[in-house]
């Protein structure tokens, strides 16, 4: 649905006297907000990009932390196995 659909419906229900002022108001609104839409889109894209970068950095930190934790666990298991080997010898 767009503005033309609304204007057509207004005419069909016999309120055609409102169509001309509404068209003028719509044109004025579009003219005033023409620059804002482009800026808003660019702003949203920048926010999305920042959010993705932040998320990636955060996930990278978590992944790095998990790897360090796994490495520690493996070292502890190896130390435990070495102790078992010394005890049985």
Automatic annotation (TrEMBL):
Comp. bias (Acidic residues): 71-89
Signal sequence, renumbered to the chain: none
Membrane-traversing stretches: none
GO molecular function, one term: protein heterodimerization activity
Cell compartment(s), UniProt: Nucleus
Protein name as catalogued: Calcium-binding protein CML48
Recorded superkingdom: Eukaryota
Species per Swiss-Prot/TrEMBL record: Hibiscus syriacus (Rose of Sharon)
GO biological process, one term: heterochromatin formation
GO CC list: CHRAC; epsilon DNA polymerase complex
Record's keyword terms, sorted: Nucleus
Region (Disordered): 28-89
